[in-house]
């Protein structure tokens, strides 16, 4: 197991600057004035993690991918803590002669095996669903 280090520093009001383990700055704002809220970043992290997997798997299966977009829809609990209860990932894959079975396989492998964010959230009780569409490029 490897140790990662990150930091978060308060700037003003509800704004914070995060520094990732790789040294990248991330502006956060609970008031959403100067950046995404921390909970929004969790949602974006899930989308980024899953999208990375889908693109990588499709490229390895020699699909001519031109674009992959992941649109996320989420519901949060009404009470504190307002955790995510349900998240749906909709992948839009654009390319030439993209095979339906390959996209389905990529999305399923990401969800069930490779996406650390998806697995972690699901183990925490979040209901995560997926679907996709293919657009000819």
What's the helix and strand layout?
Elements lengths: L6 E6 L2 E5 L5 E5 L8 H23 L3 E13 L7 E13 L3 H15 L1 H8 L3 E10 L1
Parallel strand pairs: 5-6
Antiparallel strand pairs: 1-2, 2-3, 4-5
Helix pairs in contact: 1-2
Short description:
The protein contains three helices and six strands. The protein has 137 residues and is an alpha+beta fold. The strands form two sheets. Strands 1-2-3 form a three-stranded antiparallel β-sheet, with no helix packed on it. A three-stranded mixed β-sheet has the order 4-5-6, covered by helices on one side.
Keywords:
137 residues, alpha+beta, N-terminal domain of TfIIb, GMP Synthetase, Chain A, domain 3, 2 domains, 3-stranded antiparallel β-sheet, 3-stranded mixed β-sheet, 6 strands, 38% strand, OsmC/Ohrsf
Account of the protein in words:
- This protein is of the alpha+beta class and 137 residues long.
- The chain folds into two domains: 36 residues, N-terminal domain of TfIIb; 99 residues, K homology (KH) domain (GMP Synthetase, Chain A, domain 3).
- Helix content is 34%, strand content 38%.
- The protein is built from three helices and six strands.
- A three-stranded antiparallel beta sheet has the order 1-2-3, with no helix packed on it. It has a three-stranded mixed beta sheet with strand order 4-5-6, with helices on one face.
- Strand 1 and strand 2 form a beta hairpin.
- It is globular and about 50 Å long.
- The N and C termini lie far apart (42 Å).
- The mean pLDDT is 97.
Number of DSSP strand runs: 6
Structural shape: globular
Helix-strand topology string = EEEHEEHHE
How many domains? The number is: 2
- Count of separate DSSP helical elements: 3
Give the class-level CATH name of the largest domain: Alpha Beta
What profile does the largest beta sheet have?
3 strands, antiparallel
Please name the CATH topology of the largest domain: GMP Synthetase, Chain A, domain 3
The end-to-end span amounts to 42 Å
| Category from helices, strands and their pairing | alpha+beta
How much of the residues is beta strand, in percent? 35-45%
The side-by-side strand order for the widest beta sheet comes to 1-2-3
InterPro entries: KH_dom-like_a/b, OsmC/Ohr_fam, OsmC/Ohrsf
Protein name: Osmotically inducible protein C
Pfam families: OsmC
């Amino acid at each position: 197991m490897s140790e990662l280090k990150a930091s978060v520093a308060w700037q003003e009001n509800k704004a914070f600057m995060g520094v990732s383990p790789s040294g990248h700055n991330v502006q956060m704002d609970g008031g959403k004035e100067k950046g995404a809220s921390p909970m929004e970043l969790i949602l974006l992290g899930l989308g980024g993690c899953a999208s990375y997997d889908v693109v990588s798997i499709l490229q390895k299966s020699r699909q001519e991918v031109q674009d992959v977009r992941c649109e996320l829809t989420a519901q949060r609990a009404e009470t504190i803590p307002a955790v995510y209860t349900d998240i749906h990932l909709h992948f839009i894959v654009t390319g030439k002669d993209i095979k339906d079975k390959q996209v389905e396989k990529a999305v399923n492998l990401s969800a069930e095996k490779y996406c650390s964010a998806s697995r972690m959230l699901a183990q925490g009780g979040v209901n995560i669903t997926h679907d996709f569409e293919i657009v000819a490029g």
